[in-house]
Specification:
single chain; alpha+beta; 6-stranded mixed β-sheet; two-stranded antiparallel sheet
Length: 227
């Protein structure tokens, strides 16, 4: 079993994190009863440079069609500035949108990049989205969470199980599937392997591609300035 020592500024001390890099470690984690897998966005080779940027669409009691609309709008914003993105279910209530970064930027860069994106999404969907972190300030709206792009922040990994009566799976999607009728409960421990065999790994390019964040920021800033 391998661990990685990382100094946590939040805790003002070094902490040791488990590194899962092989099947044996994965089985060890499962044996501990860890149903969910919640990795960092970076690897030990570049701990302060994430492999991806995440837009976490986190609903309150919103109809799931609104979450789908928020995801589609996020893709529209990203497509407008030529940014490739990949969507998956959270396995719980929301959707996660990943943007490949190839460990070329810091967490701060990733966070501010995501902040620009969600500002534009919120501008287009103000009636049911929010970028306010305090729950009370969101007033029941979908939280467009860009603050997951911080060191040690985690979300459920692609293909991670979630602890439900019938365990759901955080399932990568083709963007054509992010449409009315999509349901998180359709992806479970019972059918996910068959789906993976049929469709392959729809998330593999998240670790194979990159994004010119600096160039994208210029375009995003122009959209923010000009509406």
């Amino acid at each position: 079993m391998t661990t990685y020592e990382y100094f946590s500024e939040a805790d003002d001390r070094a902490k040791h994190f488990l590194v899962c890099a092989d099947e044996a470690t994965l089985l060890y984690i499962a044996a501990l009863g860890c149903i969910e897998m919640n990795p960092w966005s970076s690897r030990t080779q570049n701990p302060n440079h994430p492999d991806w940027c995440i837009i976490d669409l986190d609903p309150d009691q919103n109809p799931f069609d609104q979450v789908i609309s928020a995801a589609q709008t996020t893709k529209d914003v990203l497509d407008a500035v030529g940014i490739k993105s990949y969507c998956k279910t959270s396995g719980s209530t929301g959707l996660h949108i990943y943007i490949p970064l190839a460990a070329k930027y810091t967490y701060e860069d990733s966070k501010e990049f995501a902040r620009r994106i969600v500002k534009l999404v919120h501008r287009r969907l103000p009636e049911f989205t929010s970028i306010e972190r305090p729950t009370a300030n969101r007033k029941g709206k979908i939280y467009l969470d860009f603050l997951q792009n911080r060191p040690q922040a985690t979300v459920a990994a692609p293909y991670s199980l979630r602890p439900k009566d019938v365990p759901t799976v955080s399932m990568p999607l083709d963007w054509s599937e992010v449409a009315k009728g999509l349901k998180i409960v359709n992806f479970t421990v019972h059918n996910s392997l068959e789906r993976l065999q049929q469709h392959g790994d729809l998330f593999k390019n998240v670790l194979a591609e990159d994004t010119d964040v600096l160039a994208a920021n210029v375009q995003l800033d122009d959209l923010l300035a000009n509406g």
